[in-house]
Amino acid sequence: MSDSAEVEQGEQAAAAAGQAAVGKAIRRRSRAYQGGRLVAEDFPLEMISEWCEAEDSAVWFDLPDPTPEELDTLREELGLHSLAIEDATHLRQRPKLDRYEGHLVLSAYRVRPVDGAELDSAMVLGFITPKALVTVHQAGAVDPDALTRHWDDLADLAKFGVPFLVYGLLDNIVDGYFDALQTLDDTIEELSDAIFDTAGGRESAAALRRTFELRRGILTARHVISPMREVVNALMRRDWTGQVPDLMPYYQDLYDHVLRAADWTDNLRDLLGTVRETQLTIQSNRMNLIMKKVTSWAAIIAVPTAVTGFYGQNVPYPGFSTTGGFWTSTGLILILSALLYWSFKRRDWL
């Protein structure tokens, strides 16, 4: 064997070992329900098809940061379309619901507040078959413990199978929307108070920066939440929930929550626009006030200027016709000018 072939095999072995290490570091979670009861957890990916063959079963498998080998295994286990697998390698799709023969592909986004003003979003891709739900996402994008607790709280609905799993997933995601929007709302309220809290008449640069951070956060929320109305509406069609009509009220409630979140996002955008208009109005009012003050000072200064200019200082005064008088008047001009400059600068007029 040549040296180049040995080096190539060594690199391939190292890459395979690295992928295996990543797979072990990131835990894969799974659940199997049968007859509405939880019967198995944390089984390997290769067992999905076996559990799907069981009567009255529903399977969930969580696959964070999947490797190409895992995606190939997933395609073989569930018979997924190659385009659906391609979406799992590019987790930057818009929220949508794609339909393929025998399965659906759900794209949604989890959002979390960052520093109270911006939102961090991460895509969650769901492969939905009649008996399985597989979630694919970046590591850390989904809290599987919180998701499983949410399903456990709705254990009475587990008898509905995969529609129950999808509902629990989306309900958990939408609940996160309200938490994020509440954080943005609180931050806007704080900003509304801050724009009136100025030091010495100066506008707060931090308040202005916060305004644009909030704008980015609200834009992220709009891009993520608004399309979810179409996604949930598509899931409510008869070919999806028609077989489980008892679950329809829950999807209707979920749709109502998405509408509320979308309306709240629009209200926050309008509120932030009002805050920005208020900032501009305050700036305009402050400028008018400064102009009035400067005009007043100019009028005061104009009086001695006019008098001394009219007479030309040709009348005797202390220091008249002496070098000391010249330096005294020059010093007074410089001192008074410096005092006026300092006073104007302190009030942010210059």
Automatic annotation (TrEMBL):
Gene Ontology MF terms in the entry: cobalt ion binding; cobalt ion transmembrane transporter activity; magnesium ion binding; magnesium ion transmembrane transporter activity
Tell me where the transmembrane regions lie.
Answer: 294-312, 324-344
InterPro entries named among the record's database cross-references: CorA_cytoplasmic_dom, CorA_TM1_TM2, MgTranspt_CorA/ZnTranspt_ZntB
Q: List the GO cellular component terms.
A: plasma membrane
Note whether Ribosomal protein occurs among the keywords: no
The protein's predominant localisation is membrane
Location in the cell reads: Cell membrane
The record, for PANTHER family, names: CORA FAMILY METAL ION TRANSPORTER (EUROFUNG) (PTHR46494)
Provide the protein name. Answer: Magnesium transporter CorA family protein
